[in-house]
Amino acid sequence: MAYVIGIIVFVIVIVLIYVTSKSRYYGKIFSPEHYDEIFEWATFVLLMHPVKESSFEDGSAILTKAKIALAYTSGVDDGIRTIHFSISQGGGYTTQAVGNRMIFLLIRLLHKNQCQANFFQTESTVHHAVFSMPETKEWITSDKDAVIADMENCQRVPVQTISVPQQDAEPDTLKGAG
């Protein structure tokens, strides 16, 4: 009987440790400080144009303090400027909650622009936010404090899942990692 009680107590302790660690982990990701870090990076990379490949060296790709990998590319095609943000959670699998909140932050950052947007994730769970508008217009960003305050009211963003023919194509977009 004592053996069974010992096993139950052990399992409860393991579950509590797991829940506590996940709570701290997501607390860091969904903190105003982390949103501030992402806001600062996103406003910085919007000034870089064109960016054909993301790179840690030039700052167009970063790994945040909360271990979220972000990459940015931009280009112009037929007079339309397109900016592309990629979002990946450390450890391989990017949860819907993390991908959705990061996309919502980007939406709030850029909501003053009349632009087209496309939000999707690949089968590898990397989330993407693509915004397009005429190249003659400059990107307008919202006030940082307002964007971070808006995160309290985060809403679900419809994100499609798409297939990518080349599974090894995504890691190659981040040059200079490590």
Nutshell version of this structure?
The protein is of the alpha/beta class. It contains four helices and eight strands.
Characterize the structure shown.
With 178 residues, this protein is an alpha/beta fold. It has two domains: 1-30; 32-175, no CATH class. The protein is built from four helices and eight strands. The protein has helices at residues 2-29, 32-45, 96-110, 144-150; strands at 54-55, 61-63, 68-77, 80-89, 116-122, 127-134, 160-162, 174-175. Strands 2-3-4-6-5-7 form a six-stranded mixed sheet. Strands 1-8 form a two-stranded parallel ribbon. A hairpin with a 2-residue loop joins strand 3 (68-77) and strand 4 (80-89). It is elongated and about 75 Å long. The termini are far apart. Residues 169-178 have low confidence and may be disordered.
Biggest beta-sheet profile = 6 strands, mixed
Q: Give me the count of strands.
A: 8
CA-to-CA gap between the ends? 52 Å
For the largest beta sheet, what order do the strands appear in spatially?
Answer: 2-3-4-6-5-7
Proportion of residues in extended strands: 25-35%
Compute the number of helices.
4
Number of domains: 2
How helix-rich are the residues, as a percent range? 25-40%
Shape: elongated
Q: Mean pLDDT, rounded to whole units?
A: 90
Order of helices and strands: HHEEEEHEEHEE
| Whole-angstrom Rg | 19 Å
* pLDDT < 50 stretches: 169-178
Structural class: alpha/beta
